[in-house]
Every structure is written in C-alpha cells, then in structure tokens.
Amino acid sequence: MSQVSFDAAELAGRFALGLRGDGSARVRGVGTLARAQAGQLAFLANPKYRSQLADSHASVVVMREEDADGFSGTALIAKDPYVAFAKLAALFEPRPLRTPGIHPSSVIDDSAQVDASAYIGPHASIGARSRIEAGAVIGAGCVIGEDCVVGSASELVARVTLVARVRLGQRVVVHPGAVIGAAGFGLAMEAGHWLNVPQLGGVVIGNDCEIGANTCIDRGAIDDTVLEEDVRLDNQIQIGHNVHIGAHTAMAGCSAVAGSARIGRYCLIGGGAGVLGHLEVCDKVVVTAMSLVTSSIREPGEYSSGTPLMDNRSWRKNAARFKQLDALTRRVNAADKES
Amino acid sequence: MSQVSFDAAELAGRFALGLRGDGSARVRGVGTLARAQAGQLAFLANPKYRSQLADSHASVVVMREEDADGFSGTALIAKDPYVAFAKLAALFEPRPLRTPGIHPSSVIDDSAQVDASAYIGPHASIGARSRIEAGAVIGAGCVIGEDCVVGSASELVARVTLVARVRLGQRVVVHPGAVIGAAGFGLAMEAGHWLNVPQLGGVVIGNDCEIGANTCIDRGAIDDTVLEEDVRLDNQIQIGHNVHIGAHTAMAGCSAVAGSARIGRYCLIGGGAGVLGHLEVCDKVVVTAMSLVTSSIREPGEYSSGTPLMDNRSWRKNAARFKQLDALTRRVNAADKES
Amino acid sequence: MSQVSFDAAELAGRFALGLRGDGSARVRGVGTLARAQAGQLAFLANPKYRSQLADSHASVVVMREEDADGFSGTALIAKDPYVAFAKLAALFEPRPLRTPGIHPSSVIDDSAQVDASAYIGPHASIGARSRIEAGAVIGAGCVIGEDCVVGSASELVARVTLVARVRLGQRVVVHPGAVIGAAGFGLAMEAGHWLNVPQLGGVVIGNDCEIGANTCIDRGAIDDTVLEEDVRLDNQIQIGHNVHIGAHTAMAGCSAVAGSARIGRYCLIGGGAGVLGHLEVCDKVVVTAMSLVTSSIREPGEYSSGTPLMDNRSWRKNAARFKQLDALTRRVNAADKES
C-alpha cells in the first residue's frame, strides 16, 4: 500500500472547509481525538469530548467554528464535523484492488451477462439469466442464483447469496454472509402436516442501500419484498417476505420485521427490536432497542417496550409482582370507590 | 423459461376443487387479489380481504363456497383456499435446472458416496465418509464435513455447512448460510481459564424438515441434537446442543432454544422468542414473539412475556415505576390490613 | 476411523485422578449417565443426577469422592468431574485429518504468507499481505481478505470470512459462517441521505478465543475492535465496531453488544441479551437471558430485565395495566398522603 498524505490547506480546498492555523500541516491517516498521533487527522463533533482537544496530538482537527476559539493547533472548520470527517477519512481508506475481470475459478452460467468493467472474484457462481452491471464487484465465494441483477457500482463484499429474482439497484453494498431472496416462511397446515406455500416473488433493493453481514431478506410470496433507496441495514437482521421498507430508514443489528409489514421512510429501528407481521409503521418513527411493535404506528415519534435493568434480586421481586398487577390495580380501584 | 398455463377446469380436475363460472378461463401465473392482472390466479382465504373480490382483475380466484355466492367471475371452490392455493401456485414456481451430476469445481473425498441421481453444484466440498442419497441437491458453495448423510430428495440450497455427524432425512430443505452440526457451546472453568468440553454427538433431522437461512443447529455434546419430522425453522434461529424438537413444530425467525431443552410436537414459537436450557415444553404450546420461557411448560396453550409498546415518554414513566412495583404492592397490602 | 480405547487405570494415571474399582475396566467412548452402554465413560457432576448412578451401564464414571461411597462400579475420582470429563472426552473426539498443505482449488494472493505447516482447504481464498501461521487450519470455503493474521494453531472451521485487518491470536477457533472485520455500521446524515463513515480500524482477537457459528464482529471505525484472551462467543452474536471485551468473558447465543461498549473480564452475558453502545460493564457481571443493559454497570453481580412468562390471557391483563403503572403509583401516593 502506498501511503497517501495531504496538507490542511489542500483538504480545506477540496471539501470547502474553513481553515485555522497552519495550512501546511500534513496528515497521512486518522485517529481519535484522544489517541491520535502527529500526522493524523481527528474530529470533534460531540461537545462531551471537547476537553480532549487541548491535549490531542492530532496534527489537524475538524470541528465547528465555535470550538475553534482558543484552539492553538490547526483546525478545519465544518458545520457538521462528523459529515466532514466521513468524507475526509474516505481519502485514507485502503481499498482492495479489484481489477475488472472474471476470476478463472468462478462459474458463470452461459445465459448470464457480466459487464466487462465488473469484477468477479474467486469461487463465485452466477446463475441463469442473471446480470452484473458496470463496475459491480462480486467478491469471493458469492453465489448468485437465477434471474438476479446487480446494479452498476454495487458491491457484494464476499460470500453473499442472492438466491433468485433479486434485483439490486446502483451502489448497493452487501456484506459477507447476507442471504437475499431465500424462500419466505410460508406454511399451510393440511391434515396435520405442513405444506410449503411457494414463494414466487422476488426482492427489489433500491439505490444506495447497505445490507449488513449475515442479514437475511426473504423473497416475496406473490409480490416482491421491497427496500426503497438508501435503506441501511446493520448485521444479523431478518426481513420477512413482502416487507416494504421506506427510503432512508436505518435498522440496527439483530432487529427483525415479520412478513408483509410496512415500515415508513426515515425510521430508526433499534438493535434487537421487532415488528410483527402485516403492521404499518409510518414515516419518522424511532423504535428503541429490543422493543416489540405489536400494532401499527400512525404517529411519528419514539416508541419503546420492556422494563429497566435491575440487580437480579430486586428484579425477581418486582417481576413476581407483575403477575399480580391487574389484581393490584383492581384492588386500588375498589378501595377508591369505597372511600 | 417456458411459460406454463392452465385453464380453470383443468385445475379443478387436478386438485379436486369445485368450479364456478368459465372453465376455459386461462391462467399463467399468480397474483394477490388486489393486484392480480388478467391471466393470473388469486385466492381469498381471510374474510378481511373479501371486499377486494369485486374489483379483482384475477381471471380465476380460489375461495370457500360461501364466498362464491354472487361472485361473477370464475371461482375454484376449496374447503381451505390457502392450502389449495399453495398447491396451485407450485405449478407456476420456476425451478432452477439441476441436471444430476457433480460439478467439476467441487471437491469430493474419496470415501464419500454420491448417488448418481444427485446434483452437486459448483465449489461444493464433501468430506470423508459422507453420503449423498438419490435425487439430493447440494447447491453452490456448500461444505459438508465428515460422517454426514443427506437423505434422498433433500436440498441444500447454497452455501450451507454440515460440519460433522449430521444426518438429514428425506425431502429436507436447508436454506443458504445455515450451519448444522457446529460444536455446541460447552465450557468448563479451570483455574480461571475456559476449557472446551468436546462435542462428540451429532445432529439428526427428520423427514420433511425445513431449516431457514443463517439458522444454526449445534451438534450434541454426547447424545445427538434431534429434530423430529416436519419441523419448520425460519431464518436466523439458534438451536443449542442436545435440544430435541417434536414433529410439526414451527419456529419463527430469530427465536432460540438453549442447550438440552425439549420442545413438544405442534408447537409454535414466535419470532425472537427464547427457551432457556434444560426446560421442557409440552405439545401444542404457542409462545408469542420475543417472549422468554424461563420454566418448563406442562399445559398446552398460549404463553407470553414482555410489556406493551408505548410512546417513549409514557414508557419511561411506567418503566421507572416497575422498579418500585414490589414496594407499591407491599404498601397497598399494608393499607388493606389497616383498613 | 480407528477406534481408540483406554482402561481406567491408564486414564487415572494420565489425568492424575483417583481410582476406585476395576482398573482394567475398558472404555472406547463416552455416554450420559442415563444412557451410557458398557464400554462407555460417563460423569456425575450435578447432584441432581445422582439417582441415575446405581442404574448406569457405564463402565467407568467420573465423580467426586463423596459420590463414590457405596458405588459398586469403577469410578475415577476428581475434584471437578466436569473438568475431568472434558479432558477425558477429548481422547475420543474424532478429528478430521488436516494434512499440512494448500488445496489446489484455493486461491492465495502472491503477497500472502502461508506457513508450511498450515492447512488451507478447498475453495479458500487469502488476500493481499495476509499471513497464516504455523499449524493453522483454514477450512473449506473460507475467505480471508487483506492484511489479516491467523495465529499459530488457530482454526477457521469452514466458510468463515475475515474481511480486512483482522488479527487472530493463537489457538483461536472460529466456527462456520462467522464474519469478522466487516465494516461497522457508521452513518452520518447529510441533506436527507445517509453517508457512510469509513471504517478504518481492524479487529484484534486474543489467544484462545472462540467465535461461534454465524457470529459477526465488526471492525473499528478508527481504533480496533478488541477481544482479549479466552473470550468465548456462542452462535449468532453481534459485536459492533470498537467494542472491547475483557478476558475470559463468555456470551451466549444471539446476544449483542453495540458499538464502542466495553465489557469487563469474567462476565457472563445470557442468550439474547443486549448491551447498548458506549456503555461500560465492569468485571464479573452476569446479565440474564434477553435482558437489555441500558446504562453502565459499575458493580459486579447479576442483572436482569423483562417480565415473567404467563399464560397469554393473564399476560394481556397485566400488560395492559403496565400502561397505567405510573398513574396507579401516583394514586396510591396521593391516598397515602390523605390518610
């Protein structure tokens, strides 16, 4: 890896940031405010960490204008230092070399189409009638089944499975172990045995979506499962068949949405939270971690369920009383009536 | 893909369904009642959707006899329209071509046996003493370790791992990313360090089971982990070592059963629900989503834990009071005694 | 598989155990106390199973001294019979043969280093500048990206992904489907769209750690995600970026730790439990199954959240009252003041 480096003035110019201090201060990597060394770029976004500024060894720090007053080092001034940092840090991100072409160990069906500018890694396989568009990256060990599309500049990092009828838009990133387009969990009981309901739909994933490691998105039963553009899914998530997720919604790790539920735009679903099947959640809803959505949500806002963490002894006492809560309430109601 | 099509009379005959309307009405695919187009077959099972019937463009609709009165279109009459639909829809399911044979990129141990009618896909590997029976499908990227059996007509869709001593019955379907037969989580503490307890058992999976994407089933410590016939596991499920699951039980996504627990027959375990280790759950138990089973269940019925979803402000107030619930109950008890 | 066998005196000598009964009693495998057959070794650790001792057909039983009084069979005496059993059972564990060398179907980058005593299985790939140390085992279908290290005697069982900048210590075991070093979930919102925050850190995993099947450990944003030595993670776990887990901590299946949280040493995290981001959990904390840690824990001990399991009818009544718990408490408080 050749090591890139930039000076502060260059960075200010490239990203239209303000500059305070020494424009020739040179950085060749990033660090946290507390642990950065000379030659590194750090950022201050959360006021909580302001006290770390004076002692930081970072050569350049991205911050808000108001934080720069009295700072003796070199600062890049941004309205949103976290956004600015995200862009700056990308300059230092090591990107594995992906020369366009098809690795000889991969197996491509005769009816599949692979753009000449795409990269197909070792031990990948691509099934009938699937199409890999310009600049797409199919990492090592990916399995793409039948009738799939990987849009231009999308990347399947490694060991991703697109089972069947999965259409990814442009610039979609899918992390290792994710499984998209497996048959949804559709069962009918007949004479004491389960009967599989065929899952004839597909999955449609909009531009700029990100799908985390080991996350699953099942294909639809009849219509498709849909993620609109810029949906961000963390790791270990389960999305059932025929779910519809609105644009710009982000879901944290281990959350799950059961079949046919509809989540709005700009929602934030906390880690381990669940949404039951066939519900509707409107735009701009926040569900806190490990909460369970059991009925549709029609008003934007923050929603929660669960009980607070306690030492186990206290918890046991209170939890036992939860079993009597209805009875307790009735007794208090009755006493009120009497008095 | 050649496109299949059938007329209503043909379908009625094949599946012993009643027919109302035009027996020559032709369908070449399926749709939902609300969105089906001409040439598609739809179904009406849930009375909730009855109002969609009049406006549906479906050419043929499967329904109960009582729903057909006054319906002007073509109907197939079934006692259980969902079961009938499942069978009808299977006619239209695109099935990838799996010509029997072993893909040249796969790696088969000399001591493994593969039936001549089985299909072994690209980049699959099969370990020592394992056996693949007639008509089985081993999809791309599957890893089968030592001493495994894949029963006849079973299918590992793609990228499935059978680690060691895993025996699948007939017609078992395993979805991508599932890991069956990994070493169970058995630890003993010795002098401040963890010591692994060897996991010498295997996994036995009965006929007609289905294992979801990225689901894990660990192998037993001494005896085997067992799923009886027709057990249906959704995605992202965790089954610990030496668990025993009775026939026809279905578990929804992200649920988990800890080591040595025993689940009965015909149980339904909701999404994200958990069962602690060494417990017994009898037949015909329903556990609702995200509930935790903390003691054995001896009576069939429906069981739940958790609290309802609220707006976060209300939730915070009520949740804080949960910490005082025992004290509150004691105060009310004391007041009752006084009065 | 050649079948190994040992007599009781030989086992007593090898593991410094006491011997009662017939030193020539021969075992060639293990069984549970209840189901062992002649020729098998069993153990009695939990007093709950003491009643099974008299009827056991095991040829040799490992037990505490006090349990051996009156036992007519052959006993191996250990202070901790479970620890002794773990060591004894390892003698009977079938280990797949892993002759050192690189399988011809694997793909190794020119700049990667593979020790001559390492094993690289079928369809594995190893990226630029990665290093596989002495005696390491890289199972079938593993994908190792750039700048990774697999320490000596470590094993990636099969289909493991190390994405980038992942350094495993010695004797680390990683089970199938695990994904280590994927980009953490770092997002900044700019003008209504999500912007990815580059994840430039790596993952450092100490000696003797174990990582379960389908578990994910994301790489750090700037600094590394760290597991100290002898951390034991079960299956389906999610570890966010920049998490730090202390030595000898064990986490059960489906648990999750959000970004930048810090877990102490010798903690036990129950199945499905969660720890929110940026929190600190001190040493020797036990979190029970499916509990959510919402603030830092500074005292060792056992912690819980949630409500007990009830039949659904009772649960509905009590859960509905939870929504009125704050109001109820206020009413009781007010009544107390009045009286």
UniProtKB/TrEMBL annotation, chains A, B, C:
Active site: H241 (proton acceptor)
Enzyme Commission identifier(s): 2.3.1.191
Pathway: Bacterial outer membrane biogenesis; LPS lipid A biosynthesis
InterPro entries listed in its UniProt record: Hexapep, LpxD, Trimer_LpxA-like_sf, UDP_GlcNAc_AcTrfase_non-rep
Alphabetic keyword roster: Acyltransferase, Lipid A biosynthesis, Lipid biosynthesis, Lipid metabolism, Repeat, Transferase
Source domain of life: Bacteria
Top EC class for this record: transferase
Coiled-coil positions: none
Keyword Transferase attributed: yes
CDD domains listed in its UniProt record: LbH_LpxD
Gene Ontology molecular-function annotations: UDP-3-O-[(3R)-3-hydroxyacyl]-glucosamine N-acyltransferase activity
Sequence ranges assigned to domain UDP-3-O-[3-hydroxymyristoyl] glucosamine N-acyltransferase non-repeat region in this UniProt record: 26-91
SUPFAM superfamilies xref list: Trimeric LpxA-like enzymes
Reactions this protein catalyses: a UDP-3-O-[(3R)-3-hydroxyacyl]-alpha-D-glucosamine + a (3R)-hydroxyacyl-[ACP] = a UDP-2-N,3-O-bis[(3R)-3-hydroxyacyl]-alpha-D-glucosamine + holo-[ACP] + H(+)
Similarity section: Belongs to the transferase hexapeptide repeat family. LpxD subfamily.
Subunit structure: Homotrimer.
Classification via HAMAP family: LpxD
Function: Catalyzes the N-acylation of UDP-3-O-acylglucosamine using 3-hydroxyacyl-ACP as the acyl donor. Is involved in the biosynthesis of lipid A, a phosphorylated glycolipid that anchors the lipopolysaccharide to the outer membrane of the cell.
Protein name: UDP-3-O-acylglucosamine N-acyltransferase
Originating organism: Lysobacter niastensis
